[in-house]
C-alpha cells in the first residue's frame, strides 16, 4: 500500500475495543430563521460503529446530520448553538475539532467528515474523474499514486469489478446503485474518518439497497458511520447504535438491538413497531 492510500485499522482490532466516542454533541439547539428544529440535544456517537438516526419526517434527523459537517452553512437563516466536537488525533496528541466554531476551516472538516446524499449525485465527468476529484484538490499525488487511490476507493466501495473496464466512461451512464457506490468511493478517496449518509438507499431498488447495506456494515471497521433512514429493517440490519428523534428532541439512544426489542420509551416502541411515522 502506498502512502496515499489511507491507513486502515484492522476490523479485528477495532472490534476488540470498547466503544469510544468520536463525536460529542451537547445541548445542541438549531434553528432555521425563527423555527427551532433541534432542542437541547445531547448524544455521543461512537467511533468505528454505524449509528442510525430514526424518527418521523421533520423530526430533525437531517438537520443534525448536516451540522456535523456544517452543510447547513449554505442554508440561509440556519444557525446552531451548543457543543459539537469531533476528536482528532494528531501525531499521537488528542485534540478536538469545535465544529460550530465560526472560524473553523470548513474545507478541512469536510475532508474528515464526508457525506453521501439520498440521491446519487455523481459529477457529469468520467468515473475516474469523480473519484480523483477530491484527491486532486487536496493531495499532491503522482499519476501512478492517483490511479492506485482511485482503484482502492472503488474496491472499498464494492464497485471496482463493475467499472474497471470503463473508468473513463461517463459516471452518469451507471445504474442508480452503481452511482451511489461511486459516490461512496468519491467520499472515501480523500481519507475521511466519518461518513454521513442521508437516506443513501431511498432512491435504490431492493438489490442495490442490500449491496449498499452490506457495504455500510463492512466499512464500519474503518469509518465512523452515521446513517439517516426511514427504513426500520435497514436500521436494524446495518447499525450498531440507534438514536430515535421526535419533534427535534432525542427520545432514546442505545444499542440497536435494545432500541428495537426493548425500548425504554413508549414513543420509541410505537415508532419501531410502525404505529406512527
Ligand atoms: N432549509 C430549511 N428551511 C426552513 N425549515 C427547514 C429547512 N430544512 C428543514 N426545515 C425544517 O426543520 C425541521 C426538521 O427538518 P429535517 O429535514 O431535519 O427533518 P428530518 O427528520 O430529516 O425529515 P425527513 O425524514 O422528512 O427528511 C422540519 O420541520 C423542516 O420543515
From TrEMBL:
<dbReference type="InterPro" id="IPR017871">
    <property type="entry name" value="ABC_transporter-like_CS"/>
</dbReference>
<dbReference type="InterPro" id="IPR005670">
    <property type="entry name" value="PstB-like"/>
</dbReference>
<keyword id="KW-0592">Phosphate transport</keyword>
<dbReference type="GO" id="GO:0035435">
    <property type="term" value="P:phosphate ion transmembrane transport"/>
</dbReference>
<protein>
    <submittedName>
        <fullName>Phosphate import ATP-binding protein PstB</fullName>
    </submittedName>
</protein>
<dbReference type="InterPro" id="IPR003439">
    <property type="entry name" value="ABC_transporter-like_ATP-bd"/>
</dbReference>
<dbReference type="GO" id="GO:0016887">
    <property type="term" value="F:ATP hydrolysis activity"/>
</dbReference>
<dbReference type="Pfam" id="PF00005">
    <property type="entry name" value="ABC_tran"/>
</dbReference>
<keyword id="KW-0547">Nucleotide-binding</keyword>
<dbReference type="InterPro" id="IPR003593">
    <property type="entry name" value="AAA+_ATPase"/>
</dbReference>
<feature type="domain" description="ABC transporter">
    <location>
        <begin position="23"/>
        <end position="272"/>
    </location>
</feature>
<dbReference type="GO" id="GO:0016020">
    <property type="term" value="C:membrane"/>
</dbReference>
<dbReference type="GO" id="GO:0005524">
    <property type="term" value="F:ATP binding"/>
</dbReference>
<dbReference type="InterPro" id="IPR027417">
    <property type="entry name" value="P-loop_NTPase"/>
</dbReference>
<keyword id="KW-0813">Transport</keyword>
<keyword id="KW-0067">ATP-binding</keyword>
<dbReference type="GO" id="GO:0005315">
    <property type="term" value="F:phosphate transmembrane transporter activity"/>
</dbReference>
Amino acid at each position: 500500500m502506498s502512502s496515499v492510500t489511507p491507513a486502515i485499522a484492522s476490523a479485528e482490532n477495532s472490534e476488540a475495543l470498547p466503544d469510544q466516542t468520536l463525536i460529542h454533541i451537547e445541548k445542541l439547539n438549531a434553528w432555521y430563521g425563527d423555527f427551532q428544529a433541534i432542542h437541547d440535544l445531547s448524544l455521543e456517537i461512537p467511533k468505528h460503529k454505524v449509528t442510525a438516526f430514526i424518527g418521523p419526517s421533520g423530526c430533525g434527523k437531517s438537520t443534525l446530520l448536516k451540522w456535523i459537517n456544517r452543510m447547513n452553512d449554505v442554508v440561509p437563516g440556519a444557525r446552531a448553538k451548543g457543543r459539537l466536537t469531533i476528536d482528532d488525533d494528531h501525531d499521537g496528541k488528542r485534540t478536538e475539532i469545535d465544529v460550530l466554531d465560526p472560524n473553523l476551516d470548513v474545507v478541512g472538516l469536510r475532508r474528515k467528515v464526508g457525506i453521501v446524499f439520498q440521491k446519487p449525485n455523481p459529477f457529469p465527468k468520467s468515473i475516474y474523474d469523480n473519484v480523483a476529484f477530491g484527491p486532486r484538490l487536496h493531495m499532491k499525488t503522482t499519476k501512478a499514486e492517483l490511479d492506485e487511490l482511485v482503484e482502492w476507493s472503488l474496491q472499498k466501495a464494492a464497485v471496482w469489478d463493475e467499472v474497471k473496464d470503463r473508468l473513463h466512461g461517463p459516471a452518469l451512464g451507471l445504474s442508480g446503485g452503481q452511482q451511489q457506490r461511486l459516490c461512496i468511493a468519491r467520499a472515501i478517496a480523500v481519507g475521511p474518518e466519518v461518513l454521513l449518509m442521508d437516506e443513501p438507499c431511498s432512491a435504490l431498488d431492493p438489490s442495490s439497497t442490500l449491496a449498499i447495506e452490506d457495504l455500510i456494515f463492512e466499512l464500519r471497521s474503518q469509518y465512523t458511520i452515521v446513517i439517516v433512514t426511514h427504513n426500520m429493517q435497514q436500521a436494524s440490519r446495518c447499525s450498531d447504535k440507534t438514536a430515535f428523534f421526535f419533534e427535534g428532541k432525542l427520545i432514546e439512544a442505545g444499542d440497536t438491538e435494545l432500541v428495537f426489542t426493548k425500548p425504554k420509551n413508549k414513543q420509541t416502541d410505537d415508532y419501531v413497531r410502525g404505529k406512527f411515522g
